[in-house]
Amino acid sequence: MDEKLLRLRNVSKQFPGVLANDNINLDIRKGEIHAIIGENGAGKSTLMNILYGLHQPTTGEIYFNGNAVKLTSPLDAIGLGIGMVHQHFMLVPSFTVAENIVLGIELERVKCL
């Protein structure tokens, strides 16, 4: 299966005095699991914040299901089914992996007749 679900093309993020991400290219296919590793300050969290809409890239493009997208807020990412489990405390105390995965999923109300 070569269906690319998420594509980053030449994504860079520049903060004043710091180049956090430099021309990142990444393809993620449906069903794949990726780990992004590196030293402190390597730009891992910045890249994930871009994919979650917390930061916007300085340059580059993001494609979801073949369509160029602008992730300007977490709501944009959530609308595409992209979630984020933050490295440090953000909303709630420490959860298990399973609890973090389902944290942002809302159950649809089923109307009983």
Which descriptors apply to this entry?
113 residues; alpha+beta; Rossmann fold; 4-stranded antiparallel β-sheet; 4 strands; disordered C terminus
How would you describe this protein?
- The protein has one domain: P-loop containing nucleotide triphosphate hydrolases (Rossmann fold).
- About 20% of the residues lie in helices and about 30% in strands.
- The chain contains three helices and four strands.
- The protein has a four-stranded antiparallel beta sheet with strand order 2-1-3-4, with helices on one face.
- The protein is globular and about 35 Å long.
- The termini are far apart.
- Mean pLDDT is about 85; it is low at about 110-113.
Quick gist of this model?
The chain has 113 residues and is of the alpha+beta class. The protein is built from three helices and four strands.
* N- and C-termini, Cα separation: 42 Å
Rounded mean pLDDT is: 86
User: What overall geometry do the principal axes of the alpha carbons give?
Assistant: globular
Proper CATH architecture: 3-Layer(aba) Sandwich
Spatial extent as radius of gyration: 16 Å
Order of helices and strands: EEHEEHH
Uncertain runs are 109-113
Oligomeric state, counting identical vs distinct chains: single chain
Walk across the major sheet and give the strand order.
Answer: 2-1-3-4
β-sheet strand percentage: 25-35%
Overall structural class, as computed from helix and strand content, comes to: alpha+beta
CATH class: Alpha Beta
Major beta sheet summary:
4 strands, antiparallel
Q: Strand tally, please? A: 4
Q: Count of helical segments?
A: 3
**CATH topology heading:** Rossmann fold
